[in-house]
Amino acid sequence: xxxxxxxxxxxxxxxxxxxxxxxxxxxxxxxxxxxxxxxxxxxxxxxxxxxxxxxxxxxxxxxxxxxxxxxxxxxxxxxxxxxxxxxxxxxxxxxxxxxxxxxxxxxxxxxxxxxxxxxxxxxxxxxxxxxxxxxxxxxxxxxxxxxxxxxxxxxxxxxxxxxxxxxxxxxxxxxxxxxxxxxxxxxxxxxxxxxxxxxxxxxxxxxxxxxxxxxxxxxxxxxxxxxxxxxxxxxxxxxxxxxxxxxxxxxxxxxxxxxxxxxxxxxxxxxxxxxxxxxxxxxxxxxxxxxxxxxxxxxxxxxxxxxxxxxxxxxxxxxxxxxxxxxxxxxxxxxxxxxxxxxxxxxxxxxxxxxxxxxxxxxxxxxxxxxxxxxxxxxxxxxxxxxxxxxxxxxxxxxxxxxxxxxxxxxxxxxxxxxxxxxxxxxxxxxxxxxxxxxxxxxxxxxxxxxxxxxxxxxxxxxxxxxxxxxxxxxxxxxxxxxxxxxxxxxxxxxxxxxxxxxxxxxxxxxxxxxxxxxxxxxxxxxxxxxxxxxxxxxxxxxxxxxxxxxxxxxxxxxxxxxxxxxxxxxxxxxxxxxx
Length: 580
Hints:
Elements: H1 2-19, E1 24-25, E2 38-42, E3 48-55, E4 67-72, E5 98-102, E6 130-136, E7 145-154, E8 159-160, E9 165-171, E10 174-179, E11 184-186, E12 198-206, E13 216-223, E14 243-250, E15 255-260, E16 264-267, E17 278-284, E18 289-294, E19 313-318, E20 330-334, E21 339-348, H2 354-361, E22 373-375, E23 390-392, E24 401-405, E25 409-411, E26 417-423, E27 432-435, E28 438-446, E29 459-464, E30 472-479, H3 488-491, E31 496-500
Parallel strand pairs: 2-9, 25-31
Antiparallel strand pairs: 1-3, 3-6, 4-7, 5-6, 7-8, 7-9, 10-21, 10-23, 11-20, 12-17, 12-21, 13-14, 13-20, 14-15, 15-16, 17-18, 18-19, 21-22, 24-26, 26-29, 27-28, 27-30, 28-29, 30-31
């Protein structure tokens, strides 16, 4: 009988184990190979998704209500996330850039599985698996790197998944790369109206390459009209003015210039470095008044604390040349003999003012600017280029995010040179750091290789702290163009620097302190003034004095020297008058 009861108990235990329901992630994570350390690529204005699926039973015919996938905000040391520093802290994108989508394709107002069973327009399938997607669409200011973690949750017993699902979202910008032999051709000329004038602008990064010693063409409106055709009945050949309007760069002199076959060239100042990002623009009015812009429209200080001025050019000229809008003969050719990178190339069917150029110079989202054609190299890449021509790197228009710094503590006097670590730093002409709103110049130390030769690494710039009137913590931000600084609300991560006063701390014990004896030998003959900031009894409590060292043991007296041996008796002299 006892044996029978044991068998029954064992069977009941086995049945209980078999029916136990443990909350877990679905196998394969719906296309994600691992639960942790998955990297999700993202780009400005392009939605990225993280599929998430959680279940409580291996039997997919079991309906369990109250299953949820939710965000996790608190890190657990040595548990999650497992990404390397500085990606080991959770920072979610801003709520305005995210949304959830459940297994029906709907976007629920909450993350809970619906409890209705039928009668709904899009009911969930009668299964325990709960599928949901977390979507993120980066906006201006949120082009950062994010570490996000999720967990499954069941309201019935408040259980959660044992393992958290953590992912790193990397928001990157795409640029076009030209090696000197590449060239893109676009048929945009026919969409322009010559009598309106036009405007063109782009970010360009001409490379310092020994083979790039000739003129580089950034963009050129050209005409193929009459090429390959014989003369007309009057013996005339229409060449069509091959180059109608163009923007170019001369690397040996560091000069940007405009050129067309009608009026010739108009040169900027020869002071624009290669291996730096520059923003160049061309505007021609309906009356033929032209302007070439480079990096600005007027003098501007790099920093309010210094007198360095940002280099810029506004070159005026006149021309009656316009893009060829007849038939298929007019072409926009981009990148002839150009070595380097381009991004945000736009064409507008009207002239623009210097103020418009200045606005575009600091614009990241051009969607509402009324362009005739725009190539952001991500959603709308240039025609004629191959996939290997598109690289991942930032331009100065991208707002970077700060992830850490070399020296988190520095003196209130400032002048402490420190490295700032972040994401999407760009090597432009006016990078800056900001310490509590006080801006300082920055210098590029290292950034992500634009040729894609290695994995993405953290970007680094170098700044000098400005100092402060009193000790305090300040937020540290950065800018690629001196205009758009890190948006802390959008990056979900704040890096702080502590301005700390250097001071002399004395415990009152011993002979510690400072002295100035023998510094000024003539003080006894002159009046003397002395002052100092003092804070009595500030700081930690005075520690108890250390115990007195034990008295040294007197050394034992040395042993007395042995007495000298007795002197020998004087010798006896035998002779007369002496008895033997």
